[in-house]
Write a structure and sequence with these properties.
The complex is a heterotrimer of chains A (149), B (204) and C (361).
Chain A: H1 2-8, H2 28-34, H3 37-60, H4 90-143
Chain B: H1 2-27, H2 31-51, H3 55-79, H4 84-89, H5 91-118, H6 133-141, H7 146-167, H8 179-184, H9 187-190
Helix pairs in contact in B: 1-2, 2-3
Chain C: H1 2-5, H2 8-44, H3 60-69, H4 81-97, H5 116-137, H6 141-172, H7 177-182, H8 206-224, H9 236-239, H10 249-274, H11 294-315, H12 321-350
The chains are: A mainly alpha (149), B mainly alpha (204), C mainly alpha (361).
């Protein structure tokens, strides 16, 4: 368990903890999947902690709801109607623009990793791609889609 | 081996979650609940991608679909004033089309499944030289598939223009701040010194 | 049973202990960072801040925790009860989950994923659902408006964060956070925020670009985590407390811990991406001086960044919403695009700057 000892002993070796310290040698796939096991465990612990907090309040805290207490907060008067309402279409536009730019960012990740292998051609291809993106941005700007009124 | 068994266990849990959630998307009455279940479906499918070794695809699925597309769905569904009883009545009307689409999808899945039975080696391959799949994608996407890549760029551009044309409405009488104008303002243009005689006021 | 599963149980158990240790350190550290936030805020305003519980008020956060636990958990009448409880859970679980790939020292990482950066972007984009679902489920006007604002703000700045991260990835050539840190080894002139390597004059071109990216990331991080001066979702003069209005007791606590975990995560991201992670600013080994363990460098940088964030909170007035959107879409987005062009051109001409890696990517 050298992996564990590193965790305690402030080791400065630039080795990386991973799931390779098992008894039996694993296939590439299993070793790869084993990296994701701690992630699942962390999520599980996070879930347990949040549930524990909520249960704690249920156990220790008093609970005596009355009609006034559980009514919706609205600066002292009763709410007139259902609070879920239509809102400015601009929020949709922001969400749509976000989707588009998010996809563009996603396309740049593999490029950032392999830029030194794909040469000038690959670089130029992405520059054209970025230019297309810039045209879109300029159009949105010109049309005032980025202004908030 | 417990650890070697884990992928199989994880597969059944994730697959069952994905199918169950997908069912709940269409079964739940409240559209916001539907979107929440849809997010669950996406997450379970991302888990299945990880099990297949396609971690880049899995994380992209979360980032783009869960992080962006489902947010838009949420926006639309939360704020739409739709009469859901009325929508339910249209259900039968759309049933034939939906049935046809479902049949096509089912046939495709059966074909893919049959293909993998006939040729078992044709599935996802792990690069044994340690190339992560983001590198593998990067090495071909911008060279071999450059034109498809540019086409994607154009489609995204089109999507952006389309979204702006369809949704942008200018309202009248809106006052906006012009930052550059505000910064470019100088003392000469902004201040006027007036010599006021006592007892006369500033009325001119 | 034991012999059936062979040697795996000790390994799994050990991993679990590591993760638990990590979570406990994170939570306790968070308690003191919260206190520090309040103390800094108080000091700027010439107050004392919390000073009653424990020496210098050190135990204030723990007292607050107990107080939260003993408060009544109110679920509003018109709310969607399941989603109302689910929302804070989503916030906290995702805020914890993101930390899985953050390396605190060599080998001190829960899961050393190849695609660490993408993982952080993906999981932290889930955090927005805690807010949007919480705001909707409350069925109240203020939370609803707060959630809307918050979502629009977070997604706007997520775009520029993505583009800024690309510039760092271009220089390193890997999405693994450990490799990104190791690429900045050797001294502060290799850190991505301060690329002042005078031994290599051509790399000085990068300094203004990357320093600018560092500043942009700092500001985007503030906006992404709804910190002042971008705390419009909870602007108390307009929206009372934003999406948290209807929450009380530990449900509110979950939101708050989640929010602060995200803030500290952004500090950790800044440290890992731009400030050399656990590496010391000067790589000198003096025999008479005890070596400072790498973890303390990492923690020190995180605390320093958090201090800056706390100062900003105390000093800077709140932005207006249209100014916020303008800043994100019209300043940050175009300038990070230009930075990508500059950095990628540099990498094409001179190769990557990464020092700790053999052969780059």
């Amino acid at each position: 368990m050298t992996d564990g000892l590193q965790f305690i002993a402030f080791s400065t070796v630039n080795s990386v903890s991973s799931g390779t310290q098992l008894s039996a040698p694993l296939s590439t796939q299993s070793a790869f999947l084993l990296e994701y096991l701690p992630v699942v465990m962390l999520f599980a612990i996070g879930l347990v902690i949040s549930l524990a907090f909520l249960v704690m309040a249920k156990i220790f805290a008093p609970s005596s709801p009355d009609a006034e207490k559980i009514s919706t907060y609205e600066c002292g008067f009763n709410s007139f109607d259902d609070s879920r309402m239509k809102f400015d279409v601009r929020f949709y536009l922001v969400a749509i623009l976000f989707i588009i730019f998010d996809i563009e960012v996603a396309f740049l990740f593999p490029w950032a990793v392999s830029i030194d292998k794909i040469g000038v051609y690959g670089w130029a291809v992405v520059m054209i791609f970025l230019f297309e993106l810039a045209v879109g941005l300029a159009y949105a700007w010109k049309k005032g889609a980025l202004d908030w009124e | 081996m417990f650890v070697e068994m884990l992928p199989a266990i994880a597969f059944y849990i994730l697959a069952a979650t994905a199918v169950g959630m997908a069912f709940m998307v269409i079964a739940s009455r409240n559209p916001v609940h539907s979107v929440v279940f849809l997010i669950g479906t996406f997450l379970a499918s991302a888990g299945l991608f990880v099990l297949m070794g396609a971690e880049f695809l899995a994380l992209l699925l979360i980032m783009v679909y869960v992080g962006a597309v489902a947010v838009l769905f949420m926006f639309v569904v939360m704020m739409l004033d739709v009469d859901f009883v009325e929508m339910k009545q249209g259900f039968l009307q759309y049933l034939p089309i939906g049935g046809v689409v479902a049949c096509i999808l089912l046939a495709e899945m059966i074909l893919v499944g049959a293909a993998s039975l006939v040729n078992p080696g044709a599935g996802v391959k792990f690069a044994e030289d340690g190339t992560s799949n983001i590198e593998a994608i990067g090495n071909v996407l911008y060279t071999e598939y450059a034109f498809f890549f540019e086409a994607v760029g154009l489609i995204l551009l089109l999507a952006m223009v389309g979204a702006i044309v369809l949704t942008l409405r200018k309202r009248d009488g809106v006052k906006t701040q012009n930052i550059s104008e505000q910064i470019a303002r100088t003392r000469e243009g902004g201040v006027e010194l007036v010599d006021i005689k006592p007892g006369e006021g500033i009325g001119s | 049973m034991i012999e059936l599963f062979g040697m795996e149980w000790p390994w799994l158990l050990w991993k679990l202990v590591q993760i638990l240790l990590f979570v406990i350190v994170l939570l306790v550290g968070l308690a003191f960072l919260l206190l520090m936030d309040r103390k800094v805020w108080a000091a700027v305003q010439l107050r004392r801040g919390p000073n009653v519980v424990g020496p210098f008020g050190l135990l204030q956060s723990f007292a607050d925790f107990l107080k939260f636990v003993f408060k009544e958990l109110i679920i509003p009448a018109g709310s969607d009860k399941v989603l109302f409880i689910l929302a804070p859970i989503i916030t906290l679980v995702t805020a914890f989950g993101v930390w899985a790939v953050v390396p605190a020292a060599p080998g001190w990482v829960i899961s050393n994923l190849n695609l660490g950066v993408l993982y952080i972007l993906a999981i932290s984009s889930l955090g927005v659902y805690g807010i949007i679902i919480g705001g909707w489920a409350s069925n109240s006007k203020y939370p609803f408006l707060g959630a809307l604002r918050s979502t629009a703000q977070m997604i706007s700045y997520e775009v520029s964060i993505g583009f800024i991260l690309i510039t760092v990835l271009l220089l390193v050539g890997s999405l693994n956070l450990t490799e990104i840190v190791n690429a900045q080894a050797g001294g502060f002139w290799n850190w991505h925020a301060l690329m002042l390597d005078f031994g290599d004059p051509k790399s000085l071109i990068l300094f203004p670009v990357m320093f600018y990216m560092f500043v942009l990331f700092c500001i985007s991080a503030l906006a992404e985590t709804n910190r002042p001066p971008f705390d419009l979702p909870e602007a108390e003069s307009e929206l009372v407390a934003g999406y948290q209005v209807e929450y009380s007791s530990t449900a509110y606590l979950l939101f708050m811990i989640g929010e602060y975990l995200n803030i500290v995560l952004m500090c950790a991201m800044l440290t890992v991406m731009f400030l050399g992670g656990w590496h010391a600013p000067l790589d000198v080994k003096l025999s008479f001086m005890p070596q400072i363990p790498p973890f303390f460098w990492f923690a020190g940088k995180v605390v320093f960044m958090f201090f800056l964030f706390a100062m900003v909170k105390a000093i800077v007035p709140r932005y207006r919403y249209d100014q916020l959107m303008r800043l994100g879409w019209k300043v940050f987005l175009p300038s990070s695009l230009v930075a990508i062009v500059i950095v990628s051109t540099y990498v094409m001409m001179f190769g990557r700057t990464a020092v700790g890696l053999a052969g780059g990517g």
